[in-house]
Design brief:
Blueprint: E1 18-28, E2 34-43, E3 46-55, H1 63-74, E4 81-87, H2 92-96, H3 121-132, E5 139-144, E6 153-156, H4 161-170, E7 174-177, H5 193-198, E8 204-208, H6 217-233, E9 249-252, E10 256-259, E11 264-268, E12 275-276, E13 281-286, E14 293-298, E15 303-308, E16 313-314, E17 319-324
Parallel strand pairs: 3-4, 3-5, 5-8, 6-7, 7-9
Antiparallel strand pairs: 1-2, 2-4, 6-8, 10-17, 11-13, 11-16, 12-15, 13-14, 15-17
Helix pairs in contact: 1-6
């Protein structure tokens, strides 16, 4: 357990049984204003693990912010055994701009971990958080909000037993077993926080709760419940984790894309979370000229529909759905 009396570059202290609201400096805007990322440190009165929780590494993914707010408001620091480091908005520039990527460099901050002290703004923010806080943690939870039409899930790394256990305990109905080789050779998934944590031997999970751009009450409630489950499991807070509300399904992380065979408007025949067979129609596409069905979109594999394109208007070759094989 790390006492968290202070964090790198700061003389501010969080004493036993205290909650500290502070910020980590990253850089300056052109007009001289400082860029500082808000941080809440809650130090229990007893010994125990340290958990790092963050949200909004993608600036438009706001459900996790509300999850952290509700969770922290319900905490009584003196009753904790351990410490919590909570970063409600990891990417403040993107959050302010209401967009996914950091506006000043156009980068995806969740491809920048563990960051660089002399890199672009995304890399500097990642570096500041990773070195000041993530390295102190015994477990990491990264809260996201994917497409509105994505099944809520917790993603874990298969070579980390404790990562899988954290995902199970969080309690969502779907668990995705990440594939460390996914994205090769373009390495498009490298630089994620969870993979940066794997590099230092810290168990981490990535949690997808609802869609971006607005609060989804069901997703927020599931996130709050999940945090309580993890902290009870780690014995930071008293009590036992709440069992999952339905049987959990594990899906392989190498998701398969179903592509539109033609352009038009897509009418789905399935919903996220549905199990489908190879070749089963996921829906149909009709064109504007005749306004009749022109093509079925077949399931590319047997498995579960993890995500559906939320936009009815699709172009030839566009991703319609992501289907994962059952592990």
């Amino acid at each position: 357990m790390i006492p968290l009396a202070h964090f790198n570059g700061s003389s501010k202290a969080a004493g036993p049984g205290e909650k500290l609201h502070t910020a980590v400096p990253v850089g300056r805007l052109a007009d001289g204003r400082r860029v500082e990322l808000p941080v809440v440190i809650v130090r229990g009165s007893g010994e125990g693990p340290t958990v790092y929780v963050q949200a909004a590494v993608h600036g438009d993914e706001v459900n996790g912010i509300e999850v952290i707010r509700r969770f922290l408001h319900a905490l009584e620091p003196s009753a904790l055994s351990g410490s919590i480091i909570a970063v409600p908005v990891a990417n403040l520039p993107a959050f302010t701009a209401r967009q996914r990527h950091t506006p000043w460099d156009g980068a995806d901050m969740n491809r920048a971990w563990p960051g660089k002290p002399d890199g672009n703004m995304s890399e500097r923010m990642a570096h500041a958080l990773f070195e000041s806080f993530v390295r102190q943690a015994d477990a990491v939870i990264d809260l996201h909000a994917d497409f509105a039409d994505t099944v809520m899930h917790a993603l874990f790394l298969p070579d980390q037993r404790e990562s899988r256990r954290l995902a199970e305990v969080f309690g969502l109905p779907v668990l995705i077993q990440d594939d460390p080789e996914a994205g090769a050779p373009d390495q498009r998934f490298q630089g994620q926080l969870a993979r940066g944590c794997a590099g230092i031997g810290t168990p981490a999970i990535t949690v997808q709760l609802g869609g971006p751009g607005r609060f989804h009450e069901e997703a927020v409630a599931a996130g709050v419940r999940g945090l309580w489950n993890v902290f009870r499991y780690l014995r930071i807070t008293p009590g036992e984790p709440e069992p999952p509300r339905q049987p959990q399904v594990v899906v392989e992380g190498r998701l398969t894309k179903a592509l539109a065979p033609s352009g038009g408007l897509f009418v789905p025949a399935v919903a996220v979370g549905d199990k489908v067979e190879l070749g089963q129609p996921l829906g149909t596409i009709y064109g504007l000229q005749r306004l009749v069905d022109e093509a079925d979109v077949p399931a590319p594999v047997t498995g579960m529909v993890v995500a559906l394109n939320p936009h009815p208007t699709v172009h030839t070759g566009e991703v319609i759905a992501l289907v994962g094989k059952m592990a």
